[in-house]
Amino acid sequence: MEKLQNFGWELNPKKIVDRKKYPKLNSDFNTDWLIVGCGLTGLSALNQLKKYKVNHKISIVDAGRIGQGSSSRNSGFLVDSTLNNGSTSISNLKDYKKKYALNLAGMSELRTIIKENEINCDWSEDGKFHASANKREFYKLERFGNLLRNAGVPFKELHEDELNLLLGTSFYKYAIKTHGGVLLNPQKLVQGFIKKIDENINIFENTKIIKFSTKNDLLAITADGFKISAKKIIVAVNSELPSLNIKKYSSLPLILTSSITRNLTQEEQSLIGNPLPWGVLSVKPTGATVRYTNDNRILIRNTSSPFKISKKVSSENKNLHREGLKKRFPMLKNLSFENSWSGMISVSSNGNPLFGNIKEKIFYAGVFNGGGLGLSVLYGAAMIDSALKISNTRLKIVEEYPQANLLPPLPKIAAFLRIKLDKIFGSNET
Question: Out of 307, 359, 377, 425, which could bridge 44 as a Cys pair, Cβ 3.0 to 4.6 Å?
């Protein structure tokens, strides 16, 4: 049996382990459509081809097992707006409204897909909290509230006593709740998509694409040297775009690590006031993301690294998660984490994604800056619109949204220093 940590949220991986395993590509191959990467972006593209009733030969390749990347390893926030979208200055109101509209479009796209495919992913439209325990950070929330007010986005301000009742913890002192956010289980979402894949789709797992060629025939070349010829290629690899020489200097991968507890007992639930499911985002880009799930577990993600995760770093991350849990819920003395996992996101210097094509043959999208649940689905479908030259509102929204900028020099060093400084000066937000 595969290790539990490979499955993110899922604490009983048997049903995933037992699902059909797909072969590794071991020869040259021909197809009409090739989807590279089978997370939410690739699955959304596949779903859109199905909706358009494209009957050509469709194939998928994934470097690992389908659906087991960051799409199923995130914290499960489908965001309408976030404090960390960029500056909260009123001078940035126009840009904020654009991002808000983009997020709503992604949310609408995913809501439609879930309804059409009858996917049960613990969808909850109870909103989310942007919260802080540090009074020195309150001004950020106040500026965020002012921005929301001027943008016409409804929200609610909450202080310590009310937060304590809603969250079951006195850790947070001030919060802004936006009402349009959605909480869900990303593992269930991805598995719901996978269950709807038609039998006639060719799927190859553990097949890594290392480069493309457009010289004569359109080719995707695997790490083992096999060639896949295609008429159209959809590249849905998010953080791996630079490795395929696509907008190489526009994004930086970041590794995020999360831990989740066992289910709370009825007695433990009563100790924290039997709260309803909730989700909290920190006011700081690298602060703690915390959820109380609908099956009474607590998830914490407050660690990030621009480098590979070593055993030492992994151990340090888990210790930080335990510390964060203790600070927020000191009354839950016997509560332990059952699972920890890591996933990779992709970020840009201006917080914007990438979308485009190469010679109208290779279509790519990615760099969703930690907001990929909605945007990956929106951009995945838009790639198919673009490839088929179908003009619609969805494609217009995506094409008109600004692209990711080139990163500044030495981006890894800059990111590393930012993370380290944030840990030093913001330890009370652990």
Answer: 377
